[in-house]
Specification:
By secondary structure, the chain is α+β, with helices and mostly antiparallel strands. It is built from twelve helices and four strands; from the N terminus they run H-H-H-H-H-H-H-E-E-E-H-H-H-E-H-H.
Length: 335
């Protein structure tokens, strides 16, 4: 019986010791929250510790929100932390939005925080951009170009650089297009505006026409930003693209004409060679025909159709023909 009492007393001592250690471990957090009017009970602190949630972070964040007049429970903060969010950024963003009069609730802030996770941006930055607009250079620095090139209708290139003032649209921030889309759309608008101008002089005289045209296109639709203004920071004249294109076209036409002339020359040479071959063929036939004359003469002698005097007259006529050809100087001899 005495041993049983000792066991009970030992268990009670162990329980009291454990409770004492737990109280000592979380006493500072509990007291800090209590003093700050954001109380957190011991079971909640123990539960967070068992779930491996940094209870000091949750308590300090809740105190910050409470002091700013924003009521957030530890369960909400703990749930967002376990989801992989940044509870500190969410609370600071809520405080900044509340002070600036922006309607932003806790669930929306958590959604934005999770949406931008891994992008290098934070929900606090989004809220600050909504309060204090930021400036985006167009074109951006990532492309390696400092200006956008476009060609007016007179063929003269115009190079322009714009500065876009935007602020975050928190209602479209989740799922909205990013800064790259804004830069691309503004660049497209600049090219369209310059390309539709009759002359580069019109662009230089009234660069604000570019801003007006781009703003009318609504380039901030379905993006996470709202465009406040588009200012043309720099514009200058580039190369005469029209003249270059005409020169290249003329050079191309010349090469085409030369190629066609070469084809005709080759065809003429081929025809000349063909006619030369036919001439040689005709001469060969003539020689072949002339070779049959002595045979015909001998056949006429055998048949009695040609006498010796007739043959002699034929020879005299041939001799006279050669003499006349020699006098004429054509360089040929009659056969």
């Amino acid at each position: 019986m005495d041993n049983f009492k000792y066991i009970i007393i030992g268990i009670i001592i162990v329980i009291v010791l454990v409770l004492f250690l737990v109280v000592m471990k979380f006493f500072n957090l509990w007291l800090r929250a209590k003093v700050a009017s954001a109380p957190v009970n011991f079971p909640t602190l123990i539960a967070m510790w068992l779930r491996r949630v940094p209870n000091s972070l949750i308590v300090d964040t809740r105190i910050t929100a409470k002091k700013a007049g924003i009521e957030i429970s530890t369960d909400q903060l703990e749930a967002h932390y376990l989801a992989g969010g940044e509870v500190t950024h969410v609370v600071l963003a809520l405080i900044a939005a509340d002070k600036a009069g922006i309607n932003l609730n806790y669930d929306r802030a958590c959604a934005i925080d999770l949406a931008v996770k891994g992008t290098g941006k934070t929900v606090l930055e989004a809220v600050r951009t909504s309060i204090n607009p930021k400036v985006i250079d167009c074109p951006g620095n990532s492309g390696g170009k400092d200006k956008i090139d476009a060609v007016a209708r007179d063929g003269i290139a115009v190079r322009a650089r714009a500065r876009v003032t935007v602020r975050t649209n928190l209602d479209r921030f989740v799922g909205g297009a990013t800064e790259e889309t804004i830069i691309a759309r503004v660049g497209e608008g600049i090219v369209t505006s310059i390309g539709s101008s009759p002359s580069y002089k019109d662009v230089l005289e009234n660069p604000d026409k570019i801003s007006k045209l781009v703003l009318e296109k609504g380039v901030d639709a379905s993006t996470a930003f709202e465009i406040l203004s588009i200012d043309i920071a720099d514009v200058d004249v580039g190369d005469n693209i029209g003249a270059k294109l005409q020169t290249e076209q003329a050079e191309a036409d010349k090469q085409i004409a030369q190629a066609k002339a070469e084809v005709r020359r080759a065809a003429a040479i081929a025809l000349e060679q063909e006619m030369t071959a036919r001439t040689q063929e005709m001469r060969a036939k003539l020689v072949e025909a002339e070779a049959e004359i002595p045979l015909a003469i001998s056949e006429a002698f055998r048949a009695g159709n040609l006498g010796i005097m007739d043959y002699q007259r034929y020879r005299n006529i041939a001799a006279d023909t050669r003499m006349r050809d020699s006098i004429a100087g054509d360089g040929t001899e009659a056969k």
